[in-house]
């Protein structure tokens, strides 16, 4: 994956998260305990060790990690702008869960703040602010491996702080491991950035799946000319990821929180796409692959799927009658798919339709109902006159590709989208 080159546009305010657990260094342990409580509203604060070169009157060093609120983001990936891609950094970064992820990508963003306070715990002596983004596109790295791009950028800094540092130390919960990292970024100039990449892997075996989750340990430091001030650490979890070796030729990973989808475009699949759209809009009682009533994959051999397709199209008293005068190289396109739990219905229960192109446009309003139209709302299936080429390309090839891409395992729900 190419290195991420930018970060979110500056956001005026930071949403304060829960106070971070403090972990002092040996220097911090040597500081006599103060009788006064630490400052409030500044994150986690520690007394500044005397004689270490901190700015004059600096009594407290405070660190804050904040969740970002949803806000427009500029491009994080290399040019050109890829905001039309729902899996791009530009579409995901700066948003809060679940909007900061899709089935195949995620972006975790945090606001970072370093502050010096005086002994009155109110007067700001100096400080710095920055952003952190952790982005991954799961689809780009198969075989149950994935890589995160990490970028920290400095947004503001007072002159009395030479530099700040961010160290991201990842771990992975579950049947997974971190195979690279940590990432350390020393930030000295406003607008400057630093970062790197983190690689994970899961050892799922054939026919199994595992739920795994990245966990991040973040250490923030204020750097003085020759020493560090005591660091403060924070921990949080990334998205839950499912890795499996149950689909396709090799293992892979997705974010199961997001439903899989099969996209069938009218520009590519013509009458087939119109068939599925018409079923979704007219067969309203049973599941037809909408978000509210998804289909569920049925894992079966090609022979078993063909048998289920025959039940719908070729067996029983109401066999589908091909008519090449209506459609060249006519074929029976059944929906729901025979490879779904909802498919394999008796053909006598289906509504038979004929999609038609009018004025060069394929549209559901041009569909002609040939049989069982009066029972459309309660019908569990539709049979449609579609060229064999479009039938195979949409119902088998496109659906099969989506099963592999979105890693749709047996009995998992999926949505059929007709753009």
Gross morphology is elongated
> How helical, in percent, are the residues?
10-25%
SS-based class:
mainly beta
Mean pLDDT, to the nearest integer, reads: 86
The ordered string of helix (H) and strand (E) elements is: EHEEHEEEEEEEEEEEEHEHEEEEEEHE
Radius of gyration: 28 Å
Summary?
By secondary structure, the chain is mainly beta.
Polypeptide structure, described:
It contains five helices and 23 strands. The longest helix has 18 residues, at 388-405. Residues 1-35 and 69-83 have low confidence and may be disordered. Helix content is 13%, strand content 35%. The radius of gyration is 28 Å and the shape is elongated. The strands form five sheets. Strands 1, 2, 3, 4, 5, 6, 8 and 10 form an eight-stranded antiparallel sheet that branches. Strands 7, 9, 11, 12, 13 and 14 form a six-stranded antiparallel sheet that branches. The protein is mainly beta and 419 residues long. Helix 3 (266-282) packs across helix 5 (388-405).
Question: Which helices and strands appear, and what pairs or packs with what?
Answer:
Blueprint: E1 15-16, H1 26-29, E2 44-47, E3 60-67, H2 89-92, E4 105-117, E5 124-137, E6 145-157, E7 163-173, E8 176-178, E9 183-187, E10 193-202, E11 209-223, E12 232-237, E13 241-244, E14 252-254, E15 260-263, H3 266-282, E16 295-296, H4 302-313, E17 330-335, E18 351-354, E19 357-358, E20 361-362, E21 368-371, E22 382-387, H5 388-405, E23 413-417
Parallel strand pairs: 15-23, 18-22
Antiparallel strand pairs: 1-3, 2-3, 3-4, 4-5, 5-6, 6-10, 7-9, 7-11, 8-10, 11-12, 11-13, 13-14, 16-23, 17-22, 18-21, 19-20
Helix pairs in contact: 3-5
């Amino acid at each position: 994956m190419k290195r991420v080159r930018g970060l979110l546009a500056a956001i005026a305010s930071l949403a304060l998260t829960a106070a971070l657990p403090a972990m002092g260094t040996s220097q911090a342990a040597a500081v006599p305990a103060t009788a006064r409580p630490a400052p409030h509203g500044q994150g986690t604060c520690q007394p500044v060790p005397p004689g270490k070169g901190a700015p004059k009157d600096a009594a407290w060093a405070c660190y804050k990690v904040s969740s970002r609120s949803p806000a427009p983001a500029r491009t994080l990936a290399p040019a050109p702008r890829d905001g039309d891609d729902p899996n791009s950094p530009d579409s995901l970064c700066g948003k809060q869960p679940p909007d900061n992820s899709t089935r195949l990508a995620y972006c975790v963003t945090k606001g970072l703040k370093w502050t010096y306070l005086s002994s009155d715990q109110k007067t700001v002596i100096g400080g710095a602010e920055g952003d952190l983004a952790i982005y991954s596109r799961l689809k780009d790295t198969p075989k149950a491996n994935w890589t995160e791009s990490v970028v920290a950028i400095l947004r503001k800094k007072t002159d009395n702080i030479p530099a700040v540092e961010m160290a991201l130390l990842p771990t992975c919960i579950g049947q997974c491991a971190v195979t690279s990292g940590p990432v350390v970024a020393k930030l000295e100039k406003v607008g400057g950035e630093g970062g790197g990449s983190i690689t994970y892997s899961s050892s799922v075996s054939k026919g199994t799946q595992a739920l795994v989750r990245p966990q991040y340990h973040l250490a923030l430091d204020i750097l003085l000319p020759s020493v560090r001030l005591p660091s403060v650490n924070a921990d949080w979890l990334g998205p839950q990821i499912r890795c499996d070796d149950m689909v396709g030729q090799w293992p892979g990973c997705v974010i199961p929180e997001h439903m899989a989808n099969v996209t069938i475009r009218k520009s590519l699949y013509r009458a087939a796409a119109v068939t599925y759209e018409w079923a979704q809009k007219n067969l309203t009682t049973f599941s037809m692959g909408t978000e509210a009533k998804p289909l569920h994959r049925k894992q079966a051999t090609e022979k078993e799927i063909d048998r289920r397709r025959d039940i719908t199209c070729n067996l029983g008293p109401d066999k589908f009658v091909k008519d090449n005068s209506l459609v060249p190289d006519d074929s029976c396109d059944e929906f729901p798919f025979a490879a779904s739990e909802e498919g394999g219905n008796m053909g006598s229960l289906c509504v038979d339709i004929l999609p038609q192109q009018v004025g060069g446009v394929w549209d559901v309003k041009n569909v002609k109902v040939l049989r069982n139209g009066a029972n459309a709302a309660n019908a569990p299936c539709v049979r449609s006159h579609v060229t064999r080429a479009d039938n195979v390309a949409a119902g088998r090839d496109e659906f099969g590709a989506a099963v592999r891409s979105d890693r749709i395992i047996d009995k998992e729900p999926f949505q059929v989208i007709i753009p």
